[in-house]
Amino acid sequence: MVFMRLPVPHCHLVVAAGLILGISRLAPAYADEIPRPDPWLDPIPAQTEAPQEDSPWPAPPQPEAQTDPLNQPAEAAEPTTQALLRAREDLDLLFAELARPEGESWARAETDILRIWSRSGSAAMDLLYKRGEAALDAGDTVAAIGHLTALTDHAPDFAAGWYLRAVAFYLNGDFGPSLADLAATLALEPRHFAALTQLGGMLEETGATARAIQAYRESLRIHPNQQDAKDALERLEQETQGTDA
């Protein structure tokens, strides 16, 4: 995970520590802070009448098949209570495997966890998530924030949407909204190791070393094989020991 160096006011540190570290039940009440793009999904106008045989005008050309994967609708999903419970049980097993520092099975567990997290259960919401992800990959943080605001507005229980928008806000230089979205992410999924690592990096940037160490340690307790978090924690612990000495 790449962390950009941004000028951040230090007054946010108390807010970050109080809101996020050790968070358990924080209602995600941030979706209305940013106006939703309108319209956020542009439907393709359908032809309602067939061309008349005696019409002097040629029939309009039919649109070519879309090849952009973002324009392909996601598979419909209607998760039942049993399906949700089964997914939670699967996650519990995967997190147990993820926490094993030895071997290579953790890599497969990490991939499976991220895949499960990326599924909202709604084809329309999955499409918004993919559009936001693609905009981030293209470096268009403004477009990403637009798509992901629509996503968090319509799917406030989807932790991955909050986390991805937190990343988009951060890359756009919006420190406060990014912290708020990380808080919402961890309220919905306290084991979100990527959100904890992101938080650690943001706190480290502002010089809140003790809080950053706490966030990195919590992230590594869940996923001990994150090399970036391991390196950052080792660096900060060495700096702290040097200061204490």
Labels describing this entry:
Serine Threonine Protein Phosphatase 5, Tetratricopeptide repeat, TPR repeat-containing protein
Structure in a nutshell:
With 245 residues, the chain is an all-alpha fold.
Summarize the topology:
Elements: H1 12-19, H2 81-98, H3 105-117, H4 123-137, H5 141-154, H6 159-171, H7 175-188, H8 193-205, H9 209-222, H10 227-244
Helix pairs in contact: 2-3, 4-5, 4-6, 5-6, 6-7, 7-8, 8-9, 8-10, 9-10
Describe the structure.
It is a single chain. This protein is mainly alpha-helical and 245 residues long. Helices cover 57% and strands 0% of the residues. It has helices at residues 12-19, 81-98, 105-117, 123-137, 141-154, 159-171, 175-188, 193-205, 209-222, 227-244. Helix 8 packs antiparallel against helix 9. The longest helix is centred in the middle third of the chain and has 18 residues, at 81-98. The two termini are 31 Å apart. Residues 1-19, 23-53 and 72-77 have low confidence and may be disordered. Residues 37-79 are annotated as: Disordered.
